[in-house]
Design brief:
The protein is an alpha/beta fold and 370 residues long. The protein is 25% helix and 21% strand. A hairpin with a 2-residue loop joins β7 and β8.
């Protein structure tokens, strides 16, 4: 894993011991090349040409979560397929060299082109067009049957999974058996059944983080907070995100509950905000912070991300968090009680920022060396 771009803060520094796994967080999924057009005055109109005032390119898809974790100082390992085209090379380099993410579990697929998403941001909304094909499994040894990828995840403190109805990922159970805490979110149930029994990997999860609508549909409860308590009967820690209202969490083991309001910001682009929230919550959990601090930190990182364009482009690091904390305390009308909610940041923030500038939004895939 690259150390050149390591962040100035290691949130687990006081907890690390020699026998720890080398990996803090493992995750797997599809990496897209994201091309983001910004500065559009309105949605594109049929039959016309629109010019954007800004543009950025970056790895997307599961790379949003991996980048968010790495920028918060967690040793992150990603298992993914990469195309052998220029897009795939760019994404690999941006993640491994630019973000310090361990790609030893990833592989390049000859003749497979990278999935691509074009995102157009305007008026606080986004419109996306994607193209791609499912990556073939890695070639097996002669005479052996192809196996699911990844079939043997590394030892890690935690792993992040995305649950889907009727689907079980063998790596999730394997990671849990090897001691990883599994953090999971879930997508929209296109079947309309909304049956928790259809999420078999939920049984391996230490924490489940759906949004309010998903939580209410899966539990049949009519409020997000009631849904969180119902989910806590199935998983040790239930966290329900409430959008502009913040988040609510229930710890099933202790009965502890916590609710933290959202930070009011001018949102430019919500892409990747959910991934950043999960990354912030994973960070606080592995660092053994109080539940309310974990929620506050996750909400803060998500709020910082929506003020910038793109997915992995906007994931904040400790430099951005430190800058926010320094600025917010200068506001004359600042509510002292609201400020106290984030006082725990004082002992965490770096004395010196991460090396600058970071390799983020660029309007091209790369320049050739002279």
């Amino acid at each position: 894993m690259s150390t050149e771009s390591s962040p100035a803060v290691d949130p687990l520094v006081g907890l690390r011991v020699p026998e720890d796994p080398a990996c803090d967080v493992f995750l797997t999924g599809t990496v897209f090349l994201d091309i983001v057009f910004t500065g559009l005055d309105s949605a594109p109109v049929r039959g016309t040409e629109s010019w954007a005032r800004g543009m950025g390119s970056s790895p997307g898809g599961v790379a949003n979560m991996a980048t968010a974790l790495a920028r918060l100082g967690l040793r992150t390992s990603l298992a993914a397929a990469f195309g052998d085209d220029h897009y795939g090379e760019y994404c690999w380099d941006a993640l491994e060299q630019g973000e310090g993410i361990d790609l030893s579990m990833s592989h390049t697929v000859p003749g497979w082109h990278s999935p691509v998403t074009v995102s157009m941001a305007y008026e606080g909304e986004r419109t996306m067009v994607s193209h791609g094909h499912e990556a073939p499994l890695p070639a097996a040894a002669p005479g052996a049957e192809p196996r699911a990828f990844p079939h043997c995840p590394p030892r890690a403190r935690a792993a992040v999974a995305s649950l889907a109805p009727g689907r079980s990922e063998p790596w999730v159970a394997a990671a849990a058996r090897h001691g990883a805490q599994i953090f999971a979110d879930v997508g929209w149930d296109e079947t309309g059944r909304w049956d928790l029994a259809a999420l078999p990997d939920l049984a391996h999860c230490a924490a489940f983080l759906p949004n309010a609508e998903e939580a209410m549909r899966y539990t049949g409860r009519d409020t997000p907070r009631a849904a969180a308590h119902a989910l806590a009967e199935h998983v040790p820690l239930a966290v329900v995100t409430l959008g502009a209202e913040g988040a609510y969490a229930v710890d099933a083991a202790t009965g502890t509950t916590a609710e933290v309001p959202a930070i009011d910001v001018a949102a430019l682009d919500p892409t990747g905000a959910g991934d950043v929230f999960v990354a912030g919550f994973v960070t606080g959990t592995l660092a053994d912070w109080p539940l309310a601090d974990r929620l506050a930190f996750a909400g803060l990182t998500a709020a910082l991300s929506v003020q910038e364009f793109g997915g992995s482009l906007s994931a904040p690091g400790w430099a951005e968090i430190a800058a926010w904390w320094q600025q917010v305390r200068t506001f004359e009308a600042q509510d002292p009680a609201a400020l106290e909610r984030y006082a725990f940041l004082e002992r965490l923030l770096p004395a010196a920022s991460r090396p600058w500038p970071l390799r983020r939004a660029v309007p091209t895939i790369g320049f050739r060396a002279p």
